[in-house]
């Protein structure tokens, strides 16, 4: 019985030590992209295209497009969102990119990530925009694609009351 108790105590100690270490030194900590925040693309008639996707594929649409709701990895109580959004063909929002699409990446520690990018000679194309549901900034990738970095505030984003697809 003593041996069994000792083994159990050792396993508990190991588990607590491992868990505490993960809290102090989480894997993949630091400024980085965590997932896709959105896919933006140009369309001749965004309103008609959203209606087509809604009618034919059952994707609920809001003012900006479709929000796909999901739950964040280790904490399933935290919601996350990925936005699918067609823009008018004539939009200037993607400039200076000449491409027809822009990908929005969800990030953590946006300011630290920007400092890291600037140190590597990668400069944003604009200044950080801070709104209730997060902070945004744009930059160009090596192929001339404009990308958007978004540090979300999902609690505030959920309050916007946008339609979501699950």
Automatic annotation (TrEMBL):
Membrane-crossing residue ranges in chain numbering: none
Listed InterPro entries: Glyas_Bleomycin-R_OHBP_Dase (IPR029068), Glyoxalase_6 (IPR041581), VOC_core (IPR037523)
Domain VOC: 35-152
Pfam families referenced in this protein's UniProt entry, alphabetically: Glyoxalase_6
PROSITE patterns: VOC (PS51819)
Gene3D superfamilies attached to this UniProt entry: 2,3-Dihydroxybiphenyl 1,2-Dioxygenase, domain 1 (3.10.180.10)
Protein name per the record: VOC family protein
Organism encoding this protein: Mucilaginibacter celer
């Amino acid at each position: 019985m003593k041996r069994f108790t000792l083994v159990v105590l050792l396993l508990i100690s190991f588990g607590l030590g491992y868990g505490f270490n993960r809290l102090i030194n989480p894997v993949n900590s630091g400024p980085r992209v965590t997932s896709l925040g959105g896919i933006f693309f140009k369309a001749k008639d965004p309103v008609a295209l959203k209606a087509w996707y809604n009618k034919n594929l059952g994707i609920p649409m809001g003012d900006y497009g479709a929000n796909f709701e999901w739950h964040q990895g280790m904490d399933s109580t935290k919601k996350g969102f990925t936005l699918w959004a067609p823009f008018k063909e004539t939009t200037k929002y993607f400039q200076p990119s000449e491409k027809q699409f822009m990908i929005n990446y969800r990030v953590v520690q946006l300011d630290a990530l920007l400092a890291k990018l600037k140190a590597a000679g990668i400069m944003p194309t604009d200044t950080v925009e801070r709104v209730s549901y997060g902070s945004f900034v744009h930059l160009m990738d090596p192929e001339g694609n404009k990308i958007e970095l978004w540090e979300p505030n999902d609690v505030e984003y959920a309050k916007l009351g946008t339609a979501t697809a699950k």
